């Protein structure tokens, strides 16, 4: 084909083609999962009950990946009702189609399957997934997400000897369907029946408080070694204090950000939050040690049985754990937890997903372009039904997801008129969302007028927690902001009668859920969405409508019957055949050249 050309040109051409093949095959890895979400029978508290498992596991399997990997999860819904999985803290860069909440996706009907495909782009750290609809998280269906550093980026601490994931959660013997029915009828959640560790009930530390025959978690460790513990509060609505008897907790990471390394004897972990600790096994192992998760910000005596207890078991332990539990914080000290929260700071010198230090993004020097002050209130009757609100608006999820309505220009589904501040008008039910400006730097203040701690989460982003205090936020409150090393995370707590301020850079186009993590508040309407549209519509990085999208609501006629009832998870991603076609083309060129 190329006869007569000089040898040096031929060698150059061959080298070029080989480089193209190398580049083509050197993309970010793919990892595949097949999950069946179904009811299974378990006995967390010694009583058989129906829980939601994944592939027969409760909790579900851990997604263990590395920065920039592509994750493909084929989810088969074997429940008796529609469901979605959401990936708490995964930013889904420019791809809110994969977010798995009611505003972005049609539910996966019972008996159907749907495949999520997303990249953990430029992220590290500890996160979790859970079912996002119909109070289902109260029945389980959750599991961990661990995103490891790439090898070229070192950890800001010595490599631990082991990695352990712990899920702590309040738990009810009532089913999630009964709990949501209570909420709909205006019946507040009572004290949970117990606190679970990894789906298991408490160790029998007190015969009067804990029944016999309950399986408990025993964490087996080796003396002298250091372990990384990733702790997630995946519960319904209870803030929990986490502690390990006679052991320090060295905080190193929260929700994708490395923190200034500080020792704590205990830490309050609020609903939806995730933390990583290094724990060194430096005790004499005269016995096992208690691992405790106990409720915070509760006063009722009915909570006395609601303590989760697991066991830390050294390989050379000389006996079972016994005696009193390690003391919790003083419940009457209302400033303890807030002071502790303020002490959690960003490690500005550490590298995370990228080799540049976290602190190179100098958020405190960026001019704020938009301000939203969001007020909540306790549940109230609106149109005769109990509802919760943000700034006087209780979100009504439309039958057509916001993202689909935006894609197909379906009129009347939502309004881009969510107010910047509380309006002087009666509370209402509406599908009102925030009209975000692409690449705006936004200040959001959460004002908690409720009597309980509320956690708030924003999908698609990590935001900077810059301030919190008791009382009413005013513009003078900005003088207290941390403008240097406020931690970047995706879920923050707001204490009762207090405010929390965050800053967020809206550089991720899509429609993103802003919600209360407490299930009772979320279920009754305490959420909204932020629409972020890139005006440069020619941006090739925007992810198009997935080929396997499920249609519902006003777009139901577009849905092909049976289209998503087949198991297609064994099929490769569309991106991989494209690469293979390209490689075949290059090889054909080489073959022609060699003839």
TrEMBL record:
Domain Plastocyanin-like, residue spans:
37-151, 163-317, 400-535
Q: Can you say where in the cell this protein is located?
A: Cell membrane
**What is the protein's membrane topology class?**
Lipid-anchor; GPI-anchor
What keywords tag this UniProt record? Cell membrane, Copper, Glycoprotein, GPI-anchor, Lipoprotein, Membrane, Metal-binding, Signal
Q: Which GO terms describe its cellular component?
A: plasma membrane; side of membrane
Q: Which Gene3D superfamilies match?
A: Cupredoxins - blue copper proteins
Its name, as the record gives it, is Monocopper oxidase-like protein SKU5
Which gene is the coding source of this polypeptide chain?
Answer: LOC104239418
